[in-house]
């Protein structure tokens, strides 16, 4: 059951058919492990916390700089992230990355990828460069680090933008809400010149038992 304060807090998204009261409770029960350097990771964390994700672990995001300051994060150490997330939304808990071994979703932005990908969670990766934004989404149990690493290396999309953070946050929320079934690894690409997205199959290594279609 949502409290009156939560109904107030999330009223703008509760009216969306993709969310509703059941979806909001699902978000509040969910946990996200976010790995990424650059402002995109902070923007993504800010959106996820604001949307009411229950717990967030953040690795590698910058605590200083113009975007951090604009988001209300004014330097300090790791504990500052916890205070910042609590100010952003008291429903969202900050956890040290080591304290979130089995997240509902794992998100990585830019490179390098985390040393280990989750086994039981949906995995999202995002990168961007001057021409495009790329998002790869792998279903739970099929987060294949070797194929994703090869794809990320070939994509060379390593200039994460704040817009990328917004895009990945929305993709993560859709995944947590199960807006559409996530049953195969897919890649989304958005060209800045022609802003339309279409999914493609992840180019797995031939014969990969984990992620090849
Ligand atoms: Zn693979």
How does this structure look, described?
With 213 residues, the protein is α/β, with parallel strands linked by helices. It has a single domain (31-201), classed as NAD(P)-binding Rossmann-like Domain (Rossmann fold), CATH 3.40.50.720. 35% of the residues lie in helices and 21% in strands. It has eight helices and eight strands, in the order H-H-H-E-H-E-H-H-E-E-E-E-H-H-E-E. Strands 3-2-1-4-5-6-7-8 form an eight-stranded mixed β-sheet, with helices on both faces. Helix 4 (39-51) packs parallel to helix 8 (162-176). It is globular. It starts with a helix and ends in a 12-residue tail after the last strand. The model has no long low-confidence stretch (mean pLDDT 90).
The total of helices stands at 8
The CATH C-level class name: Alpha Beta
Strand order of the largest sheet: 3-2-1-4-5-6-7-8
Shape: globular
Question: Strand count, sense and closure of the main sheet?
Answer: 8 strands, mixed
* H/E topology pattern: HHHEHEHHEEEEHHEE
Cα gyration radius (Å): 17 Å
CATH architecture: 3-Layer(aba) Sandwich
Query: By CATH's scheme, which homologous superfamily applies?
Result: NAD(P)-binding Rossmann-like Domain
Q: Kindly state the mean pLDDT as a whole number?
A: 90
Percent strand equals: 15-25%
Q: Span between N and C termini?
A: 40 Å
Q: From the helix content, strand content and strand pairing, which structural class follows?
A: alpha/beta
Binned, the helix content reads 25-40%
> Hetero groups bound?
zinc ion
């Amino acid at each position: 059951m949502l409290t009156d304060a939560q109904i107030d807090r999330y009223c703008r998204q509760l009216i969306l058919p993709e969310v509703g009261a059941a979806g909001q409770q699902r978000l509040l029960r969910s946990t996200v492990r976010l790995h990424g350097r650059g402002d995109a990771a902070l923007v993504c964390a800010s959106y996820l916390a604001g949307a009411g994700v229950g717990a967030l672990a953040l690795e590698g995001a910058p605590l200083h700089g113009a975007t951090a300051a604009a988001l209300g994060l004014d330097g300090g150490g790791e504990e500052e992230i916890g205070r910042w997330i609590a100010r952003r939304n008291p429903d969202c808990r900050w956890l040290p990355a080591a304290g979130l071994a089995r997240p509902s979703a794992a998100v990585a932005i830019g490179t390098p990828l985390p040393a280990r990908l989750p086994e039981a969670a949906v995995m999202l990766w995002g990168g961007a460069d001057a021409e495009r934004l790329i998002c790869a989404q792998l279903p739970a149990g099929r987060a294949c680090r070797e194929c994703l690493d090869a794809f990320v290396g070939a994509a060379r999309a390593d200039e994460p933008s704040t817009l990328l953070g917004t895009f990945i946050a929305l993709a993560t929320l859709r995944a947590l809400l199960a807006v559409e079934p996530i049953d195969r690894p897919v890649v989304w690409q958005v060209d800045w010149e022609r802003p339309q997205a279409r999914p493609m199959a992840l180019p797995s290594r031939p014969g990969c038992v984990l992620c090849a279609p």
